[in-house]
Amino acid sequence: xxxxxxxxxxxxxxxxxxxxxxxxxSSIYNVKKIFKTRVIALMGILAALIFAIQMINFSIPGGTxxxxxxxxxxxITIGPFAGAIVLSVVLIVxxxxxxxxxxIALGSxxxxxxxxxxxxxxxxxxLFKKISKKRWSFYVSIALASWFSVVFxxxxxxxxxxxxxTYEMVITLKAMVLVHxxxxxxxxxxxxxxxxxxxxxxxxxxxxxxxx
Length: 212
Known about the structure:
two-stranded antiparallel sheet; 212 residues; 7 helices; mainly alpha; Arp2/3 complex 21 kDa subunit ARPC3
């Protein structure tokens, strides 16, 4: 899902860059406001895990790549603000050190995955958890949030490529969204399994349960 340089035009890169900067600044402010030592520790651990997960990617027709996102994992365990920071740091390191995703397109990639993907996941999780407090609904909410976060992030990436005129909007949307609807199933299964494991051995590490 990483967009390389040259695939989004300058106005799209600048717009998403400004939106991403604002999102990161807001996330840092909110994390500092509710500072907890265990949240900071978990951010480091999850950053390493997400970094490893996102290194496994494959090409998709339409000028980008597909991989597991991890947005729902961080959003549900440590909350959307801390999660957005974690994914942003991962994306910055990947772009600067491993050339995975463009430098100019970094704002777009952060906006799609760290802002859009994380907050979309948390919204679905939050709404579903409000409907039912039963244990089974917790896991269903994780799966739905994981799937939707991947699809939504891919939609944003396709939209940016279409607006930039890199490919026809319809072709890019079909290529990106349809493939990521399948990838989202894998993301849902893996994320649910990881959080279920955490819930079994250290349920206290799922920070969002305290706020919902």
